[in-house]
């Protein structure tokens, strides 16, 4: 019982994945980004860009400044015009690298703040609100999730094929389809 970090209750399964995905879907900071409108084939895979438009998303994880990953530090001090956006790491330019840094270094620092934010959102808006968002994302498909929510000035096909991006995005997508609604339903309120 005196063992360091001993817990009577087990950790939430896939906890880092839950907070990571919520960071893309229900964040604090309104972020203006370019969304590509894609022509897609019968499988929903993007073929070419038809047009682009500026959209706003609420995020606490984002890609900016030449593909580097940042997180919104709600408890941090404002740093000039970028507000409270903090760079994950100077070398984190791939999604799998950023996720591993988030899971091991960033989440332990901001977990309580994220938990309280999601808890309050569920209490204020109700679980049905989030179920609707998740159902809509699933209905639109993985490439729309990438185009409309994740990408910053990249189309999903290009983003998906870069480095290990596709593997990481497949893991996120599987979690969204199979576990996200249940995980939010079991969230400790």
Query: What is the succession of H and E elements?
Result: HEEEEEHHHHHH
- Can you count the beta strands? 5
Number of helices: 7
| Average predicted local confidence, pLDDT | 78
Radius of gyration: 17 Å
Instruction: Name the poorly predicted regions.
Output: 1-11
Q: Give the domain tally.
A: 1
How would a textbook summarize the main sheet?
3 strands, antiparallel
Q: What is the assembly state of the chains in this entry?
A: single chain
State the helical fraction.
40-55%
Taken from the alpha-carbon principal axes, the silhouette is globular
Task: Going across the biggest sheet, name each strand in turn.
Answer: 3-4-5
Measured between the Cα atoms of the first and last residue, the distance is 26 Å
Strand content bin: 15-25%
SS content category:
alpha+beta
Please name the defining characteristics of this protein.
189 residues; alpha+beta; 3-stranded antiparallel beta sheet; two-stranded antiparallel sheet; 48% helix; globular; disordered N terminus
């Amino acid at each position: 019982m005196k063992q360091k970090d001993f817990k009577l209750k087990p950790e939430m399964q896939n906890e880092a994945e839950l907070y990571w995905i919520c960071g893309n879907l229900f964040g604090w900071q309104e972020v203006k980004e370019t969304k590509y409108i894609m022509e897609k084939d019968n499988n929903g895979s993007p073929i070419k860009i038809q047009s682009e438009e500026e959209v706003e998303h609420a995020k606490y994880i984002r890609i900016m400044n030449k593909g580097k990953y940042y997180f919104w530090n709600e408890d941090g001090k404002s740093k000039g015009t970028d507000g409270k956006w903090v760079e994950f790491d100077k070398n984190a330019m791939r999604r799998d690298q950023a996720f591993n840094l988030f899971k091991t270094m960033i989440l332990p620092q901001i977990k309580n703040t994220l938990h309280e934010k999601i808890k309050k959102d569920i209490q204020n808006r109700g679980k049905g609100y989030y179920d609707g968002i998740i159902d809509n994302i699933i209905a639109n498909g993985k490439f729309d999730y990438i185009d409309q929510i994740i990408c910053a000035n990249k189309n999903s096909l290009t983003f998906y094929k870069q480095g290990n991006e596709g593997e990481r995005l497949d893991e996120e997508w599987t979690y969204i389809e199979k576990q996200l609604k249940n995980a939010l339903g079991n969230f400790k309120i």
